[in-house]
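quick q for whoever's on today - can somebody do inverse folding on this one?? i tried earlier but teh output was garbage lol. tokens:
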């Protein structure tokens, strides 16, 4: 049986305060459960990349940002195989810099917590470090 193949469009936001970055811990049992990630997710139909980013950051972290405060820094692509699917993905990576760490309220259906980390923190896997490199962090 051949796998279903499809494209997905994602957005990801590096929220930076000084030399620290916000990382959310994915919930056990979810896709890449127990790994850390940056706020982001899939775009919805008829949504701009900025609208998607504002929505995803708020849904996942409770942080309200304005589209004009986002800096589009990179686009990345990848392919992964999961169960009966082959997913081809493109992700628009944004940077949002803040002077004061905002209050974070993680989406309990997706995450179990959050940390503010430096780029060399071992909790950040190579994929996330590559995003940081591409966004100039």
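ok took a stab at it. sequence:
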């Amino acid at each position: 049986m051949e796998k279903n193949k499809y494209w997905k469009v994602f957005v990801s936001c590096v929220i930076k305060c000084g030399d620290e970055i916000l990382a959310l811990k994915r919930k056990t049992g979810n896709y890449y459960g127990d790994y850390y990630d940056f706020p982001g997710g899939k775009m919805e139909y008829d949504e701009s990349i900025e609208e998607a980013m504002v929505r995803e950051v708020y849904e996942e972290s409770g942080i309200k940002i304005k589209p004009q405060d986002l800096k589009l820094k990179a686009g990345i692509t990848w392919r992964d195989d999961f169960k009966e699917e082959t997913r081809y993905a493109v992700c628009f990576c944004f940077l949002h810099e803040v002077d004061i760490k905002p209050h974070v309220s993680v989406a309990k259906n997706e995450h179990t917590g959050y940390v503010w980390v430096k780029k060399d923190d071992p909790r950040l896997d190579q994929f996330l470090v590559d995003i940081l490199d591409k966004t100039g962090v």
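fwiw The two ends are 43 Å apart (CA to CA). also The first strand starts at residue 4 and ends at 17. so keep that in mind when u check it
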